[in-house]
Amino acid sequence: MNKSEYQEKISGVLISAEELQIGIVDAARTIAQQYLDQGIDRVVAMYVLKGAREFYSDMDQYLFEFGLRTIEDTTAVSRYQKGLQGGLPRISVPETEAQRGDHILVIEDIVDEGLTLQYIVEHLNLINPASIKTCSLLMKPSKYKAKMKIDFPVFNVDDHWIIGKGMDLTSKERNQSGEEKERSIYRDLPFVGAANPDFLLGSGQIDEKKAEYLQSLIAYTH
Length: 222
Known about the structure:
Elements: H1 3-9, E1 10-15, H2 17-37, E2 42-48, H3 53-65, E3 69-75, E4 77-80, E5 88-91, E6 103-111, H4 115-124, E7 131-139, E8 152-156, E9 162-163, E10 169-174, E11 180-185, E12 192-195, H5 197-202, H6 208-221
Parallel strand pairs: 2-3, 2-6, 6-7, 7-8
Antiparallel strand pairs: 1-12, 4-5, 9-12, 10-11
Helix pairs in contact: 2-3
């Protein structure tokens, strides 16, 4: 990533790659120990597409190192019914490896209001698992509205527009035919950063009021 691209689209690093790995290792150790203490040595580890894939990959490795085996699974939630604020959720990957009596660990990249994750948990309860626990790499306490508890939050963050470590930014890029297309970028960044509000405003993803709010968070953080 060149410096001009960094300044244009990214305001700064919130959690470094090194800090992320330390936090993930500590979380994996805690999670594995809690299950093992109950005599549970295998869980269905279900990550939410696409954002949690990067986090899951690290978590799965460390859970194994600490003695907890996993069965990989995925889920996704999409929105529909245009005209409603945010739309209504629905599970868009309905089939699951989880079965009745399984212990399920749902892995998310970021939780803000928590309503989507709560919907996933309610949906999974229909198969009568032995337990469901939730883990999120990032959590925004100031935004949280769900009634359920997040069992294993790794990092708390302010209400920034988050990118990196599986979380994307929409950017318009020209393809070989010269057409301008929207693409999801920056999921591959090894750190967690805040998107530049000026870029978001200029690309039409937020309005001026939202840009001012995000700028105030960045000023507070630094």
